Amino acid sequence: MDLTALAAYVSGTTGPVVLDAGDTRLPAELRDLLVTTPGKRITLTSAEVTPGGAALVIAGPSGDVWPVQGLPGVRVTLSRVTLTLTEGGTPPVTGTATGVLPLTATVTAPVTLTRGAAEGPGAWRLTLAGDVPGVAPTDLLSLGRPGGASLVPVPSGLAALTTARTVPATGYAVTFHPGTSFEAYSTVTVPLPGVRWPIVPEILELDGLEVRAELSTVSFAAVVAGQVVVDGVPLEVGVGLRPGTHWYAYLRPAPGRAFPGVAALASWIGGPSVTAAFQAAGFDGAAFDLAVERIETGFDWKAPAIDYVEVASRLTLGALEFDVVLRLPDIEVRGSLRGGPVPLTEVLASYGLPTAGVPSTLKIHKAGLTARPRRGSYLAELDADDVWQAGPIGIDEVGVVVSYREGRGFGGAVHGVIALGASIRLGLVAAYDPVEGWSFAGETAPGSRLAIGDLVAELGDRFGVRDLPEAVTSLALTGLRVAYRTGDGGFTFACRGGLTIAEAPVTLAVDVAVARPATPGGPRPVSFRGRIDVDAGGVPLRFDTGIATGADAKLFTAAYSHVPGAATPDVRSVVAAFWPSAAEVIPEGIAVDVRDVVFAADRTTTTAYLFVADLGATVDLSGLPVAGEHLGTAGVDPLRLVAASGPIGVEQVRKLNALLPDTVAPLPERDIPAGVAFEATLKAGDLSVPVSLRIGGAGAPAPGTTGTSGTTGAPGSPGTPSTPGTPGTRPSTAPPAVPATAGVSGTQARTTDDVTWVKVQRGFGPVRIARIGMTYRDGKLKVLLDASISLAGMTLSLDGLAAEVSLSRPAAVPVFSLRGLGLSYVSGPTEIGGAFLTGEIVYEGHTYPAYSGGAQVKLKTLGLSAIGSYVQLPGEPSLFVYAVLDYPIGGPPVFFVRGLAAGFGYNRRLVAPPIEAVAAFPLVAEASGQGRAGTTLADELAALAPYLPVSAGDYFLALGVRFTSFEMIDSFVLLAVVFGHRFEVDVLGLSTLVLPAPGAGAAGVTPIAEVQLALRATFVPEEGYLAVAAQLTRDSFVLSRDCHLTGGFAFSTWFPAEKDNGHDGDFVVTAGGYHPGFPVPAHYPSVPRLGFSWQVSPQLSLSGSAYFALTPGALMAGGAVNASWQDDSLHAWFDASMDFLVAWQPYHYEATLHVSVGATYTLPGFGNNTVSAHAGADVTLWGPDFTGVATVDLTVTSFTVTFGAGDRSAPEPVPWDRFLAAMLPGRDTIVTLTPRGTVPGPAPRPGDLGVVDAAGLVLVTDSAIPSTAGTRGASGDALPVNGAATTFGVGPVGVPTGGVTSVQQITISGPDGPAEAAFTYTPVRKNLPFALWGDKLTPATTDPRLVTGMLTGYEIRPLPPVEPARRPWVHRSALLASTSLAERPGVIRLEPPPPFTASADGPVPREAAIARALADPEVLAARAAVARAVLDGAPAGPYALDVAGLVEIPQVAAHV
């Protein structure tokens, strides 16, 4: 480096001197320094060159602005630069600069920049040139940050961070690398004298604070340091500043001082509660305190609260020493091993754990500790560094877990890993037993990819176990568990994997147990035990497997025993789990309580599979109705389902049985043919017959083939030898049934309806059984009996006698059924025949068996028929009987009785049919001879069911008579009284008139008229309803059967009753229905028009109709006639109709008439043009006076004609007197008074109530004229109305609503004057006709029928008695005597009364004699003395004894 040349070069430069790193005239060492400056140059305003031997100093003022790399926005403005070059120096060139640096918006600090060896390559160090006042610590921390943002929040209590202070010259420095992308590194040290920071008051309060920070462009580390005293020990605390509120701090003692103890720390952070918990944990901190190396605490300055304190120290447990950290206040310890390896036996011994059998070569080289002294628990996890040899297998990665629990002492567990081949790796855990030694057990991790070949090879190579069963070697291994015991040296390999036995893969778990050789070097005994887990339709099942070895290694069984209470599997699903194709021919839904299931495979020569399910379904036939009690022990048991893919010989069956567990019933030791069948034993008395019910076709399919499934036909069909009377079969999709000749044995045969029958021909008392059959259908096994009962010449055939058990419902009990009984008896002229059918009745959601039927008794001269039904309800039966005597009894021609009918119902309700169904109602049709041909008993009973429902607590009686009148009218009338829950009277009838009367010579001749009228009357007082209806049936005609007669009549009225029907006061009388414009209320009867309809010929039809109706609002009537001719092209018609509406007060009528006549003709050959002509008239009439308007419509024109009085004027109102006389009762009866609760006796005088019972007395006033108000007494006190309607009009009189005042005044007097205040008054409301009390003078069909809720009277009741202010009482002492009355002489005298002889006087003299006796002074004095003695001071009653109070004058003795 040529310093002389450099000095000459710089000195010779005029003006500013620019030292540029690119100037080659400068020495390389100087250029290297210039490279580290911003812009790679330094500009001096003027240069001062000072040579000094081996050194050269170049200095001068400068105005360069240097950005501080890494602190955006921070710039130093230089004032002077000095460069020192030293020949041979290190470094050869150094540089310093002075300038100013803005620290805040208002404070600029003088700074010094230095470039030398200490700063590192390319680095410049910026320091303060002196103390700088007016700067806050946060100003320095945020210098160069975007926006000047603070990196940390300022806690409350530490506002000094943002308060301006004096920064010492050493308080801020920056190292940066100009011209690069390197980070800038800053240090901040700002003392905060006199500031106290209460982080957590009374616990963590710092004095002597100082802010220390180290920052870079991308990192931040700041600490507020202070002092705190704990247990007298001054500690330096450094709080790390960070985002959020949870901060941490270190604590360290002053030099030469020790840390405080953990007990003192616990007391410091938590006070007495933590101290007590620390002491209760039993933690011995003496040794721990001596080794404390570090303390750290965490806190939330916002809460404020201490989060934790961690104390780092050392801890010795047994033979192991740990580096640990104690965390307070949780009092938890975590640590790791300190020092070198320790023998495992030494460690176990130090904890009092067994060491027997533990290899001495195992040493602990790694350990972890977790302790919770508060809970009294410690846990150490230790790793050993050698192999534990277990027989022929080595256990690697041996580890030990040592635990301590207060009250239990030390415990431990050993674990390790073994490898079997390349694919099998298991983790083992060992436990120690003083007798059995160490026991290791472990299994592979789920999802491991395992190879059964590795296990087979290991068993052969290490244990000498070869020739394993096929079930093991074929296993697709998915899991393996190994167990080893040092005591007996035995291994167990529990294998789990997939195995396909027939078709479907299953999961097999098999245990291979390998024992220690009996002699050293000898073979190891081995055994196999397995199980299969399958999913049978969502029900998990476990099968115990039987695995053969040696020559029989290809025999395999899987057996399942059902556990009571466990889920019941579906048999078909169980088969499908092993053998899907065979499951297709297994019936669906068999899920009865399965006792056990066996699946077997035989691959010794040919492959055959066998499935046997022992079903827990037994059928006890002794429960059969009627016949069961005579059969003794009868039933079906056991019941099995057997499916075989091929024949299996008896010898193979015996070998398979040897593999089954004892809990499973053995297979039947016989040759088992291919196929699927139910096998059972049918028992009856001493009879026991095996039967096999084949299912599907020839047999179960072999694996890999497809079976045929379907539903067998229903058992029994008409005319077949199976269940007589059973409904017919349905089509079957199953393979063809085995022919009847292909039965299992000579004693049983299978019919075409899939019933297997066994001939019995045995008698069991009165029961005779011809055959017993068995069939299966829809998941149910049915046992059928072809049986009858004979008693004393009478034979009962049992139709459809069967017992059925559901194989799809595990909890189902056998269901016994009897479709019916056939009755037959013949003896001389007496014949009895009948049929009784079994059915079901649903009552209150429950189904009960019902027996319904009919019988006929034929004698020589007469016959009696009856129908009935019986059902047993809980507690009592429900039944009805209805009998008909069809025998002429006689009588006058007008009422000649031809038959009688009677019936009753118990817990049955009779529902009367609607009028249109009376003719077909079985109780009427049966007795009137109107039953339709082809109607069976079952049809008749089914038709009766909705009219005679079961109803507990309801009853009915019915009586009917059939009679003729002059042989022309055939009638039947049935009177029924229904009682129980409600009272109802019904009358049903049917009358048929035939003209001329049928006679012997009139057979086959169509009568000129036949009229059939149905009658229905119903009276229900509880509901306030009376209705009478009559209606022509569809069998009515006149002149020709094509001339049908129609029409009906009805009368209905509604009156007040217990149950408000909402229609009281309403009524209707109608024949043929109502006016077309009348809106018929829903509660009015529907009545067809009176009329006829006659198709005279194919071309001519005639019809007509008429009606009449009377309602509270109006009277209406009308009629219509129609004639029509239709013949090819010609159509002609005539129509006429008339409708009347009549009001009676004032008399007014309105009518409409319509007449139309016309014809149309279609002309052929001219494009089918139609020519028409018609004439019609529509006439509207009203009056009085008679007035009308007629509109005439002709083909070519129409016109209107007015006739009569002219204008359509409104009718004149009726005068009130006339309305009163015509529409209301007489003046004396407009208001009536009706007493209730009176006592029977002589009729009271007018205006007197007579003798009454005050407790039940009710007086009811009723006014024919509604009231607008009610008053009582002479003062006219208003009575309540309680919402009753009090405004109305009088339509016929022309008075509008609100124009009437009608006050009902009630006056009551007694012996002491007015007595109205002694009673209560309740309004009586009624519905009255709108035509009378509405506001319409002229009626309309749309008017309301009634004005509802009108005030018509009051119910008057006496006020309840008032309790006296002072109740009468008698002191007990007054009723006691010092001497017993029986011992006091003269107190009680028993003397016979004088003989009584009645006076011969009449009632009037007797009444006078009694009145004299009551008024006698001596009698009055005696009565008063008795009252004073018994009730001293009691108020006297207002009334004395009076003859008027006697209901009847008693007899009087003659001597009175």
From TrEMBL:
Organism: Sphaerisporangium rubeum
Domain DUF6603 residue range list: 760-1238
Biased composition (Low complexity): 700-732
InterPro entries according to UniProt: DUF6603
Region of interest called Disordered, as start-end residue ranges on this chain: 698-749
Designated name of the protein: DUF6603 domain-containing protein
